[in-house]
Amino acid sequence: MQPAISNGQQIRYSKTKKRFSLGTAFMYIVLTAWSLTTIYPLFWIFNNSFKESRDVMNKSFSLAWDPVLTNYTTAFDRINIGKSYLNSIIMSGSTVIFVLLFGGLAAYVLSRFNFRGKRVIYSILYATLLVPAFATVVPVYELLIKTSLVNTYWGLILPQTAGNLTFAILVIAGYMSTIAKELEEAAFIDGCNRWQMFMKIFMPVSRPVFASVTIFVFLWSYNDLFSALIFVSKESVRPIVALLSEISSQYGTDFGLMATAVTLTVLPILLIYLFISKFIEQGLTEGAVKG
After folding, report:
1. Domain ABC transmembrane type-1 spans what residues (predicted)?
2. Beta carbons within 10 angstroms of residue 108's beta carbon
């Protein structure tokens, strides 16, 4: 037999339900409007990549009912966009690997050890976030010239690794500081040294934050047009963002080709995000909560 519900309880329940429904409806309206302003431009670029240049100009907002692949074949044959793809993957992927390795080790030391000067190191790391990247271009470029690294893969990998290390260290250290000390003590009892503990305990447990750092570092490295134009301007090592800038200047009237180049540039970022998206929200929130 179910308990009776009074009139006052029914009124409060109906008000709560009504308030919840209005709030949910408003939330969906806002999210729908946001998705239209974000997703539709991507669809517009993708749709126009299957049109000829004159159709992009005359029928920009119509669907490509008769898609043509000429723009894609031109992008790979005449512009050699595949080589630029490979360059971007090599340089951005290497940057992510080095940032995760060195940043993870530094974060492990800062989050799990107490030593003199720890607060000073944290202060220096936070202070470096205030230094704009443009202020370091001249000394970095001179250093690369002296070491003969200009127009090489290392000429972009090393500066981008150094530029992203601070962010990675602070974010990963914030997450690792929340890992229970009992887990570390149990690993010591089982005979793990510091390196084994980092590789077998802290890295697997910290997968969410490593995934978050991966997507951000890869995104910043992949889209770093300013550094690419200065440090690796040679065609053989030119990343895809630099190629996209060149297409805009040389093939400015071929709007179908430009739409294709933009589509091919954005595609890797979307694929990587889809693979690790489930870790991103968890990695961004858990590192800021103690316990």
Report:
1. 85-276
2. 23
